Amino acid sequence: MKTCHLQCPTTLASFYEQVAMAFAFPEGFIHDMDELWEQLLQVEGPLELVWEQPGVSRDNMGEEYWMLLEILADAVAERDDFRFTLC
Fold this sequence. Notes:
Layout: E1 2-7, H1 12-22, H2 33-42, E2 47-52, H3 54-61, H4 63-78, E3 82-86
Parallel strand pairs: 1-2, 2-3
């Protein structure tokens, strides 16, 4: 299982960097929400994403935080081998 423990990202860039490294996204991954969605569907699983201190991320990232949550929830619904936890 590939596991990503997000260490309280406060920017969209830090979110992308942490996820891309943990899930071994291909080199050249474009830091873009559409590309994130594509990679979440294509990367070999099983996958687990644990977002630590999401309130800090929410306060710093604003609307981007909510957009990321929507993408992650959609990925969970699309894949049987993807787990996502806020803690």
